[in-house]
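Input record, target 12 of the design panel.
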């Protein structure tokens, strides 16, 4: 695999994946296609712009002509589709764009893979397609055989994209793989998601909005462990297969928030319990046995170490998230970083 299309690379996980691949896979060149929605930030890719093996194209995965022209010109060996509307709360406010990007955009990419005989398409999916687990049954975990059972417009759109990806494999023989990962955290996460939002609020001494009683549980994975898993699936995974990715790092939201406050030296009086998210999934927990047994993937970063590193990153890179809060990030151009 010499040339890989990475969609959504100006976002959190796609950006980390680009840095990871450029560092650990010399000889591979990457083209990033990103629409630069509110969630895309070119500053996340600042270091990549200096690398001759990296190219950026602004455009939407829903733009069939642009996508087909790009595939024809570049002759990709693989596609990794990170591009998505990713925030559950926004999907409750405005579901339409989630269906357009997450479902129809995936269809455009799959069609382009068929038309130009791309040897591999990887769909970056989520554990949210499995719905949620009860809080009082800690032995239950999501396996690849767990039925899809979604809660939010976001998760319904991601499950639809998974079904479409599997249908293209069965009907057209498209060489696909799918990964379903649990909650990621780490550098460059947009400050609307729990961890960076709480760091930004706590740093400013503002109230920390915790939904409900803060008892919902998420299974946290350090973003670089996710990136390594995707690379292993790309290079060693079996076509047509789904791989769950997670690291057995379950935490209640309130625990995560208290950890952030402790490390930042702030008091718990900043915690403010607010109205719960409608349809709020109670607990996610991934069983990652298949990817461990078949590909030898294991998480390398435990939550206690990863969260400390992440909080330090946000403290040391405050200008990155302040540029988002001020809106300045939307004025950046690729030339500014070359
Ligand atoms: P993000 O919101 O940080 O980034 C999404 C990126 O996609 C942005 O750069 C945005 O500009 C781009 N984008 C949006 N619409 C586009 C379009 N139509 N065409 C091209 N680019 C477009 O998201 P993230 O948290 O990095 O998530 C990346 C992927 O991983 C998503 O598919 C998400 O469903 C999945 N995922 C996320 C997590 C998590 O914890 N964040 C966990 C599991 C899976
Ligand atoms: O599990 C994977 C999913 O994780 C990904 O598919 C999604 O793209 C990603 O956004 C994430 O979804 P969540 O809804 O779990 O993430 P979020 O950061 O929005 O919320 C994490 C938990 O924190 C959730 O239980 C809701 C709660 N929360 C969130 C916010 C933003 C709060 O209590 N207060 C908040 O202000």
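The sequence produced for target 12 reads:
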């Amino acid at each position: 695999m010499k040339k890989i299309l990475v969609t959504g690379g100006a976002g959190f996980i796609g950006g980390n994946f680009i840095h990871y691949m450029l560092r650990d896979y010399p000889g591979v060149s990457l083209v990033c296609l990103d629409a630069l929605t509110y969630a895309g930030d070119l500053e996340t890719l600042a270091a990549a712009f200096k690398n001759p093996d990296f190219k950026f194209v602004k455009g939407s995965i829903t733009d069939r002509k642009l996508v087909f022209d790009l595939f024809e010109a570049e002759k990709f060996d693989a596609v990794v589709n990170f591009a998505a509307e990713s925030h559950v709360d926004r999907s409750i406010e405005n579901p339409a764009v989630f269906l357009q990007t997450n479902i129809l955009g995936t269809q455009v990419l799959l069609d382009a893979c068929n038309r130009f005989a791309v040897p591999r398409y990887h769909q970056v999916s989520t554990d949210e397609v499995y719905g949620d687990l009860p809080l009082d049954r800690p032995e239950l975990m999501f396996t690849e055989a767990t039925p899809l059972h979604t809660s939010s417009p976001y998760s319904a759109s991601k499950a639809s994209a998974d079904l479409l990806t599997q249908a293209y494999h069965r009907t057209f023989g498209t060489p696909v793989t799918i990964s379903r990962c649990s909650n990621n955290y780490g550098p460059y996460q947009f400050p609307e998601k729990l961890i960076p939002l709480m760091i930004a609020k706590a740093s400013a001494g503002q109230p920390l909005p915790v939904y409900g009683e803060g008892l919902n549980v998420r299974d946290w994975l350090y973003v670089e462990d996710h990136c390594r898993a995707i690379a292993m699936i790309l290079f060693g995974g079996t076509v047509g297969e789904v791989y769950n990715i997670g690291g057995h790092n379950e935490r209640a939201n309130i625990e995560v928030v208290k950890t952030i406050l402790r490390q930042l030296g702030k008091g718990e009086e900043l915690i403010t319990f607010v109205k719960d998210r409608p349809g709020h999934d109670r607990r996610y927990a991934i069983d990652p046995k298949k990817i461990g047994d078949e590909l030898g993937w294991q998480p390398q970063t435990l939550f206690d170490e990863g969260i400390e590193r992440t909080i330090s990153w946000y403290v040391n890179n405050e200008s990155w998230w302040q540029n988002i809060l001020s809106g300045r990030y939307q004025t950046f151009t690729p030339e500014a970083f070359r």
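Residues 7-8, 10-14, 33-37, 39-40, 60-62, 82-86, 101, 105, 124, 126, 158, 181, 183-184, 190 surround nicotinamide-adenine-dinucleotide (ligand 1) (CB under 6 Å).
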